[in-house]
Amino acid sequence: MIRRFLLAALFASAASAALAGTGLVEPTLKMSPQHDSKVRVAMTLDACMGKTDHRILDTLVKERIPATIFVTARWLKHNSEALATLMAHPDLFEIENHGENHVPAVDKPVSIYGIAAAGSEAAVEQEVEGGRQAIVAATGLQPQWFRGATAKYTGSSMATINRLGMRVAGYSVNGDGGSLLGAAATAKHIASARDGDVIISHINQPTHEAGEGVVKGLLALKARGVIFTRLDDPSFTPPGN
To answer: So what's the pLDDT on residue 21?
Structure first.
């Protein structure tokens, strides 16, 4: 796996364009182009809660496709077999922080996609730290990245996450629409990724059609000769994070 290249992160900040009428921001994350003929893409998968989509996990292992997996404490409690698979392939999988209870890391009382946000700075801290501690307890690893439920934040909640030692993980391609898209649409979104893109999809919905699309999209990228990388690349130092 070739992962030695310069990366650049484009993060929304307090000065970033707010999501219309909400005061929320959604960070974007991309890798810097390397000015060569190779296409590099980072695949990130959220394990929010519930079960594991082995269609995706088994494909990643079989096809030797590296990925960054964002896990919650809730998911870790009920997916020991899948976690064992992740741990057995440290060359493929990077395990990062998706929070304790899959609560949006937003420090004001709002609802996002029907999910109540943390609502205060203290509650954001608990969501981040609870997720971190669960990962350390389950794996012995210290996560470096955090992605909150819904991937939306306030500028101040992002600052809190940074203060806790976490980088905020945005993305540039929404592969599966929160695992709600059909197989064909998901495959099309993922297969359309270009050099430097960071893809977000989900690995915790084994009954959804989107999982089939994730597999098809990944295989299409591999057939194109895409090089897959992870967010723990040693040259990845996002400015301001």
So the answer is: 63
